[in-house]
Inverse folding.
């Protein structure tokens, strides 16, 4: 009997083996890890100073917006007039490839990612925290818009430059209004929280994420998963944003592509 049934079993196994490569060939699954890290380091070198100035030296409550009116003439945003191209360019990129700015180019995102490598807390999939905490970035966006259009983006510190850069930061704190100090302490607090809860600022508070997340839903290309997904969540475990492809806070970084045993994650346009 075993000899009579083996052809059927072999035929089933052969069919299964034939089907797997067909699905794999339809997905572009590049090894993006090295390219991702190289671009992030390059952007940290190129825009890192601007990010640093925005937190510690920008006299406005919402940084990176009013660079043309900023008295800090040594800031990259003032020198290169980055403010318009920065925002319009990232929105255009988002329409092309989702929140790729967050996952590939943002200097602050890279710093948060490094801090998150020490994190030990993961939100339960489908839990209340995972459902509602990502809405925090929309609250951050709403607050930023209110400051811009209702408060007319007030200057709330005097960015005095005395000698070296770090002593100048101390002077900035000494002459800042309480609202600027609160804003800065909140940002720093979220960075510290990111050591325990991965990239807390990027996932739950960043106004830029609040802008790019809705736009990313219309992106032409993205990291996606197919119907072969069996919800093993290995992609979520490998993701620094603690999410899955096509779900909230996915930045299309591509780290999850080769974590999938089903080989059902790819980059491109989902059919």
């Amino acid at each position: 009997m075993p000899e009579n049934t083996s052809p059927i079993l072999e035929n089933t196994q052969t069919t299964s083996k034939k089907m797997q490569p067909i699905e794999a060939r339809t997905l572009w699954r590049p090894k993006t890890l090295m390219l991702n890290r190289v671009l992030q380091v390059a952007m940290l070198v190129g825009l890192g100073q601007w990010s640093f100035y925005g937190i510690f030296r920008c006299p406005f409550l919402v940084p990176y917006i009013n660079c043309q009116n900023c008295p800090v003439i040594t800031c990259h945003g003032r020198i290169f007039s980055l403010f318009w191209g920065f925002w319009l360019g990232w929105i255009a990129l988002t329409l092309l490839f989702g929140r790729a700015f967050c996952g590939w180019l943002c200097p602050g995102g890279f710093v948060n990612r490094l801090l998150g490598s020490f994190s030990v807390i993961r939100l339960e999939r489908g839990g209340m925290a995972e459902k509602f905490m990502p809405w925090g970035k929309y609250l951050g966006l709403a607050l930023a818009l209110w400051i811009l259009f209702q408060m007319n983006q007030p200057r709330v510190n005097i960015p005095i430059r005395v000698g070296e850069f770090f002593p100048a930061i101390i002077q900035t704190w000494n002459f800042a209004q309480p609202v600027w100090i609160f804003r800065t302490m909140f940002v720093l607090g979220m960075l510290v929280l990111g050591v325990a809860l991965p990239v807390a600022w990027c996932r739950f508070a960043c106004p830029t994420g609040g802008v790019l997340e809705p736009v990313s839903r219309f992106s032409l290309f993205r990291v996606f998963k197919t119907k072969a997904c069996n919800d093993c969540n290995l992609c979520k475990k490998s993701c620094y944003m603690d999410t899955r492809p096509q779900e909230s806070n996915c930045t299309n970084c591509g780290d999850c592509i080769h974590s999938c045993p089903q080989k059902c994650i790819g980059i491109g346009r989902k059919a």
The two ends are 45 Å apart (CA to CA). Residues 1-25 have pLDDT under 50 and may be disordered. The longest helix spans residues 2-25. The chain has 13 helices and two strands.
